[in-house]
Specification:
There is one protein chain. The model has no long low-confidence stretch (mean pLDDT about 95). Helices cover about 40% and strands about 20% of the residues. Helix 6 packs across helix 11. By secondary structure, the chain is an alpha/beta fold. Strands 2-1-3-5-6-4 form a six-stranded mixed sheet, with helices on both faces. The chain folds into two domains: about 140 residues, Rossmann fold (3-Layer(aba) Sandwich), CATH 3.40.50.10860; about 140 residues, NAD(P)-binding Rossmann-like Domain (Rossmann fold). It contains 13 helices and twelve strands. The structure holds 2'-monophosphoadenosine-5'-diphosphate. 2'-monophosphoadenosine-5'-diphosphate binds next to helix 7.
Length: about 290
């Protein structure tokens, strides 16, 4: 990051297609106001075919942006178009946070840090789990697998309807990561202290199959990266069966922290007021 933010008003973006549902402008807007910073953060809807030109304008400085967030469907292209993607992005093959340094486009992926920071805030000590079960092998699961592995969990079991996709990720993320089909669910859950849903099951209140969480360790944590609704049917089931649950909203809030610091120069706090602001917005649109 150069010193332009000291003198100018740094401008950052979130881009996706569509992007109007993104809550990132609300999150960054809250922090800009809270810390009294001179800067702006805006949503820019960019179609797939226009994305390379958008990135070219970021790189040559003509867009006036210092960086931004990238969401679906541009995360893979952002990674490919960056001059300096970091190791986290390289392994995942996708980036969600961009910034310019010395005329070069840098890229990282903060989803995994968002996931672990949320668990740290809500259930410290979670990383002592020896075994974790991750349901799902889509794009969203990659950062979660990486982050859980990097925090030292010994055994990570991916369960997916399409087992070939789970195998691909097990190969990518190394020997501590194992792949299974849905039929192995109860077996791999036995004694696990962390269960993570990364599938779209239960999103927007859609019906979810019944899951018997009882094979998990008695003190296990069940978490979901879906946050609409806040308490997904899967979390409701786990709670009714006596398990501690952590919702996915915190992941969204915490993944925004590194970008804000890069563009605006201040490490922001995820506080209850921010969480309540987003929940109120979710209720307004439900
Ligand atoms: P994302 O990038 O958001 O993770 P994705 O790549 O489409 O989205 O992945 C969605 C995940 O949800 C996958 O793991 C998918 O399983 P498959 O790989 O077998 O498709 C899982 N998923 C979606 N609907 C499901 C369902 N009804 N039952 C089981 N798994 C489901």
């Amino acid at each position: 990051m150069d010193d332009s933010r000291e003198t100018l008003k740094p401008k950052a973006f979130v881009t996706g297609y569509p992007v109007r549902h993104s809550r990132s402008p609300m999150i960054h807007g809250y922090w800009l106001k809270k810390y009294g910073l001179n800067g702006s953060y805006e949503a820019r809807e960019v179609a797939v075919d226009d994305f390379p030109a958008f990135i070219a304008r970021l790189k040559d400085g003509s867009s006036g942006f210092v960086g931004g967030n990238v969401t679906i469907p541009h995360k893979e292209s952002a990674f490919r178009l960056a001059d300096r993607p970091d190791e986290l992005s390289e392994e995942i093959g996708a980036s969600n946070t961009l910034w310019m340094t010395d005329g070069l486009l840098q890229a990282t992926n903060t989803d995994g840090r968002g996931f672990t920071a949320n668990l740290d805030a809500r259930r410290s000590g979670w990383e002592r789990a020896e075994r974790a079960v991750i349901l799902g092998a889509g794009g969203a699961s990659r950062a979660v697998i990486q982050a859980v592995r990097d925090r030292g969990i010994g055994e990570i079991h991916i369960i997916n309807r399409t087992v070939a996709r789970a195998r691909e990720l097990a190969d990518r993320f190394g020997r501590r990561v194992h792949a299974h089909g849905m039929d192995a669910l109860s077996e791999v859950m036995t004694g696990a202290a962390l269960f993570i849903n990364t599938t779209s099951l239960g999103m927007d209140g859609e019906a979810t199959p019944a899951i018997d969480f009882r094979p998990l360790a008695a003190d296990a944590i069940v978490t979901d990266i879906v946050y609409v609704p806040l308490k997904t049917p899967l979390l409701t089931q786990a709670e009714a069966q006596g398990f501690a649950i952590v919702d996915g909203l915190g992941m969204l809030l915490h993944q925004a922290v590194p970008g804000f610091e890069l563009w605006f120069g201040r490490h922001p706090q995820v506080d209850d007021e921010l969480r309540e602001l987003i929940i109120a917005d979710m209720e307004k649109h439900s």
